[in-house]
Automatic annotation (TrEMBL), chain A:
Gene3D superfamilies: MetI-like (1.10.3720.10). Pfam families: BPD_transp_1. This is ABC transporter permease. The keyword Cell inner membrane applies. It is a multi-pass membrane protein. It comes from Ancylobacter moscoviensis. It is found in: Cell inner membrane; Cell membrane.
Automatic annotation (TrEMBL), chain B:
Its main location: membrane. It comes from the Bacteria. It is found in: Cell membrane. SMART domains: AAA. One of its GO terms (molecular function) is ATP binding. This is Amino acid ABC transporter ATP-binding protein. Residues 15-260 form the ABC transporter domain. It is a peripheral membrane protein.
Length: 244, 271
């Protein structure tokens, strides 16, 4: 039987881990997105010297478990004296930053392919029209390709963010007390895994539900062309072309 | 109507192509095409599917870079870098951008930018390419939309317009650049038959106001009525060229005669 008072007590303890879970998500997704954008540009550059390194990166990070990546960053970086003596060491030695780095590197690999897919989805005719009206490549990229690619990839990207929220649970394996870390600690004290994990699951579900809604709202706001046409101004009929 | 072959011609042609060649792989599509249009002239380009009409038009604004030959717009030759073993490319992208803004193109499939409203489609390039004042551009765009009869659609997205309305908007978008030359690549071929008329009407009005236009079309009646000169392209060469009255009534070459009869056109010449 579910012990309700214990469950509520657990829930309030676990909610204390939400800020850390969200921090890990926001930091890794935002920095991962920047790296992903660079990787996607390398992939679509058409230059093998840029394309192949990006391909290899994506292959490596999609082909190995996030947990392994977290361990490599957390336990592996301290093996390099260069890093230990560097200015970055105060960061790199923190489990918090190791988790952010590993998660960011991981999401960058997946997101790069999403961004590349978005860029490739832009119809040739849209780009030709931009060129035919005198737009330079950078201008056409900024004004036409990027906005269309962004709208196209947003649904898949919201999925990736949700996957990242769930991946932050792995940070508990390197001592971080985010929601799952707190849950593990509570279980070792109470020996009541069912209530604790149901509580943790409910929290993740709520976060992800909110993220999905937020992204859907953003998608709608950015895609007025998918909504119904605005109400006709005065005349419901289009006027015929005026006689010249 | 001007004749580009006149000796000591007083005006530089609006556009002049000389010896244009273009291959895709080992397949040469254009075998040295020369063509000119004077200011105010309307030239229709006819030809069977695959004869190279689109390729020729796209060589004018460098959407395709010709392998050989020159393109000059209002006397300014477009610089092309050609090195053996490499595909040709534009030598000066800034020049190409400037000339494209002067010689705007209207596509068969409209290609309005789907994420922008009709009004935004019209001001996008004038504001960002020509760096003109946004408010001024908006006012001009409204006037252009009224002119092509879709003022009430200015806040709609392209997806909410019929094909005919989209093409009229695309023509207005090309006009918003204040071009000195307009290129039309089968502007009505993607339209339902009942929508063709409204687009042809807009183009006809442009011809009447003396715009310089190169029009690739399969609308024979329209080409005959609106053009100052007709060019018949066959397998990448100009097979026949002349005033529409002559060309349609008395085609000299068998190829043009066959082409016209396939298009359902009755010529006066015996077959
Ligand atoms: N990008 C390309 N790559 C390879 N071949 C091409 C390309 N574009 C055109 N071609 C070929 O060049 C030839 C001429 O094509 P083009 O589109 O200029 O013909 P067209 O006269 O416009 O025909 P249509 O009336 O069907 O539009 C065709 O054989 C076509 O297959
Ligand atoms: Mg064509």
């Amino acid at each position: 039987m579910l012990d309700l008072p214990f469950f509520l007590d657990t829930l309030s303890t676990l909610i204390g881990g939400v800020p850390l879970t969200l921090q890990l998500t926001v930091l890794s997704v935002s920095s991962g997105a920047m790296l992903a954008f660079a990787l996607a540009l390398m992939r679509v550059s058409g230059n093998p010297l840029l394309d192949y390194p990006a391909r290899f990166y994506i292959f490596a990070f999609r082909g190995t478990p996030v947990l392994v990546q977290i361990y490599i960053v957390y336990y592996g970086l301290s093996q390099f004296p260069v890093l230990r003596q560097s200015m970055l060491w105060p960061f790199l030695r923190e489990a918090y930053w190791c988790a952010v780095i590993a998660l960011a590197l991981n999401t960058a690999a997946y997101s790069a392919e999403l961004i590349r897919g978005g860029l490739n989805s832009v119809a040739v005719g849209q780009i030709e029209a931009a060129r035919a009206l005198g737009m330079s490549r950078p201008l056409a990229f900024r004004r036409i390709i990027l906005p269309q690619a962004f709208r196209q990839m947003l649904p898949a990207y919201s999925n990736e963010i949700i996957l990242m929220v769930k991946s932050t649970a792995l940070a508990s394996t390197i001592t971080l007390l985010e929601v799952t870390g707190l849950a593990a600690k509570l279980i070792s004290q109470s020996y009541r895994p069912v209530e604790v994990f149901i509580g943790a699951g409910a929290i993740y579900l709520t976060i992800n539900f909110l993220i999905a809604r937020l992204c859907a709202a953003l998608q709608t706001a950015l895609s007025p062309e998918k909504r119904a046409a605005p109400a006709p101004a005065q005349s419901p009929e289009t006027e015929a072309p005026r006689h010249g | 109507m001007a004749d580009p072959t006149l000796a000591g011609r007083p005006n530089t042609p609006a556009v002049e192509l000389a010896g244009i060649r273009k291959s895709y792989g080992h397949h040469e599509v254009l075998h040295g095409v020369s063509l000119a249009a004077q200011d105010g002239e309307v030239v229709s380009i006819l030809g069977a599917s695959g004869s190279g009409k689109s390729t020729l038009l796209r060589c004018i604004n460098m959407l395709e870079i010709p392998d050989a030959g020159t393109v000059a717009i209002q006397g300014e030759a477009i610089a092309i870098t050609r090195r053996p073993g490499q595909p040709p490319r534009s030598a000066d992208m800034a020049q190409v951008g400037r000339l494209r803004a002067k010689a705007t193109m209207v596509f068969q499939s409209f290609n309005l930018w789907s994420h922008l409203t009709i009004l935004e489609n019209l001001v996008e390039a004038p504001v960002h390419v020509q760096k003109r004042d946004r408010r001024e551009c908006l006012a001009e765009a409204e006037a252009l939309l009224a002119r092509v009869g879709i003022a009430d659609k200015r806040h709609h997205y392209p997806a909410h317009l019929s094909g005919g309305q989209q093409q009229r908007a695309a023509i207005a978008r090309a006009l918003a650049m204040k071009p000195s030359l307009m290129l039309f690549d089968e502007p009505t071929s993607a339209l339902d038959p009942e929508l063709v008329g409204e687009v042809l009407k807009v183009i006809r009005d442009l011809a009447a106001e003396g715009r310089t236009m190169l029009i690739v079309t399969h609308e024979m009646g329209f080409a005959r009525e609106v053009s100052d000169r007709v060019v018949f392209l066959h397998r990448g060469v100009v097979e026949e060229e002349g005033p529409p009255a002559e060309l349609f009534a008395n085609p000299r070459s068998d190829r043009l005669r066959q082409f016209l009869s396939r298009e359902g056109w009755k010529t006066s010449a015996p077959c």
